[in-house]
Amino acid sequence: MKNVLSFLFESLQLKRVKRSGWWIAKVKDPETVAEHSFGATITGYMLAKKENVDEEKVIKMCMLQDFPEARLNDLHKVGHRYIDFRKHETEAFTEQVQNLDPDMRDEMSALFNEYQEQKTPEAIVARDADLLECLIQAKEYIDSGYKDAENWLKNSGPLLRTKTAKKIFEQLRSTDSNIWWRGLKKVDR
Fold first, then answer.
1. Which of 99, 128, 93 is nearest to 111 (CA)?
2. Which of 133, 4, 11, 8 is nearest to 71 (CA)?
3. All structural domains of the chain
4. Half-sphere exposure (Cβ direction) of 76: Cα atoms closer than 13 Å
């Protein structure tokens, strides 16, 4: 149980790791990796249902794919230009799970590797969930006045591969991020 607890404590580090790409867009207090992972997991579930793939597998991939950032931190795409981050993520993840029970370690490793390889429908959906969550966050930042977040829509939108994610992205571009609460506010007279 000590190894499981250690793994769980390490996972909590993701609540403090800021998504560094948003600093480039001048966002003062960007979301954390944990917040992004939560959003990607919800998005992954919805995409998996719409794309008719194994939603449990997609959810697990979404939860695990950024886990190495607990050790490596988040590195924005300008940094990726100079550092082979994927290689180091794989090394870190292997070390992160090495002391877990073999059944957990093996399942997590298989899911992480499948996500990295991007060859199965579930891995493709999980990656689209990761990208789409980031695009939704970009739209919120744009609507909050961070115009440089527009760059994410221009560069990441074309990377989406599933029909559902592409449809959501097209709708996202013309939708106010405040749509969810409009009409819900109770106003007393």
1. 93
2. 11
3. 2-173 (1.10.3210.10)
4. 12
Cα–Cα dist 183/189, whole Å: 16
The neighbour count for residue 111, using CB atoms within 10 Å, is: 21
Distance CA 62, CA 56 (A): 10
pLDDT tens series, the chain, 189 aa: 999 999 999 999 999 999 999 999 999 999 999 999 999 999 999 999 999 999 999 999 999 999 999 999 998 888 888 988 889 999 999 999 999 999 999 999 999 999 999 999 999 999 999 999 999 999 999 999 999 999 999 999 999 999 999 999 999 999 999 999 988 877 776
Look at residues 47, 84, 46, 39 and name the one whose alpha carbon lies nearest to residue 65. 39
Residue 89 token pair: 């993520």
Rounded to two decimals, the pTM is 0.94
Both structure tokens of 146: 């961070």
